[in-house]
Amino acid sequence: MVSLAVAATPVLAEDQRACGKYGGVLTTHAGEDLVNFDFHQQPTVRTQQRVGGSYNRLFRFSFYEPGGIVNDLAESYSISDDGLVYTIKLRDSVKFHCGDLAEGRPGACTDLDAADVVWSIDKIRNKNFSRRAGYFTAISELEAVDRLTVRITLSQADAGLVSKLAVGWAGIFPSELPWDRLKDTVIGTGPFIWKEYVTGAGSTTVRNPDYFREGYPCLDGVRNFVFKDPTVALANLRAGKLDINSFMQYIYPADAKLLAEKHPDIEVSLPARLWWHSIAGKVDEAPWNDKRVRQAFSLAIDRYKAIEVLGEGAGAIGGYMPPWSKWSLPADELAEHIGTADPAAVEARREKARALLAEAGYAPGSLQLGWLTLDTPESLLTPQFVQEQLRLIGVEINLEVSDRGTFTQRRDSGDFQLVTTSNAAGVLDPSIFYADYLICGASSNESGWCSPEFDALYAKQLSARSDEERVPVVHEMERILFDELPQVQVRWIAEGMAWQPWVMNWEDVDPAYYNNVTLEEVWLDK
After folding, report:
1. How many whole angstroms separate alpha carbon 324 and alpha carbon 308?
2. Ordered DSSP codes for 177-204
3. Prediction pTM value
4. Quick count: other Cβ atoms within 10 Å of Cβ 41?
């Protein structure tokens, strides 16, 4: 018999702001073309920004309060005294998309029920169908108790479960939709119905007249263009052709400065983001199987110069946890691993790197490696910088620049020597930074590294009942990573966004890119 605690509530009551005006189509962009529409297997900002407005989650992050969580499809929930059972009551009379546009899509016009929730979450936690399966490793069983009740049973407590269920990737779709059809079909309960996607042009969504939140959405639709070149997107924003440059990223420090000087009426934000770039090889193949090579790579990189050159001073220097957070090792200890900005110290680290390579049997110029990378501007910056840094210790890198489809295929099949691990976390929770990338067998563990000691600490921090108990465990995990270096961290990235003064009820409160995507309360004052 499970004893249920008093019904828990999200961090916030439902926050909302009224539509000052109805109608209009918001124009924005999300970079290059999509590979497909499956936001579990293609969990990039490009996918989530385009399809996210068609889905809801059990919970969602506040549109206005950083880190705040409110109910979405969940009406209420409760947690057992031992923290192992979550019982979630769903809203009644929520309907999947209807009408001519949705006709023929599996599950169209059906009522949301518990079976849909179980079906959707089962997919995201299945690593054969999801690159975000690590988020939900603590779940042992999902049950549809009745039509509007879902029970989630955990194998161990997970204090971050509600946050994970609020992340943009946790969208709910009909149980009638086969998992592999999520690649070509977009259907949810969200504020906007998917109309079309045209390769090279972009996506179009239109207002859902049956949306369960009465009075929303404010807009008639969203037009999301394809602009592979961010300079073209910026030009369209400056000309007033875009309402939002991209409601997830793509404004760089130089862009922000230009807009401040030339277009002071345009709103610009450049906050710290939960996005980092690192390098990975395969730990079971040479040369990455030699820790001395990994150490040499880490020693060679001047991370302070990376922020100065690539981020024009914006971004952060750190390790495997966001360096501005309590989850990161203290600054003094971090410096022992990533160095300082002192030129003499930088050169001393490189001299040690050369010695390690020589000890591993690599003479200057003899170690030549291919590095698989995406062809987008922001994806090329880090590899190009590191390429020059490694040349200073006698390592030659050939950049294998690929479009997203080729990159995805090669990365997922392990067809690389080195690969950029350009990762983002959905929320500032330490388990999320490691769940998909570094625990044994994780869906996005490109290096194939596996440490039972690390995994045991991961399980320990996951079930900690307080941050005070959790912090030292998370710190110990980062020490292991700095010792083993399965991935070599380069930089924490700062990118921003910009929007026109007539875009109302919009605030850049999401450091993760993926969560504030539905635009249901946004309206245009023009």
Report:
1. 18
2. S-GGGGGT----SSSEEEEEEETTTEEE
3. 0.83
4. 22
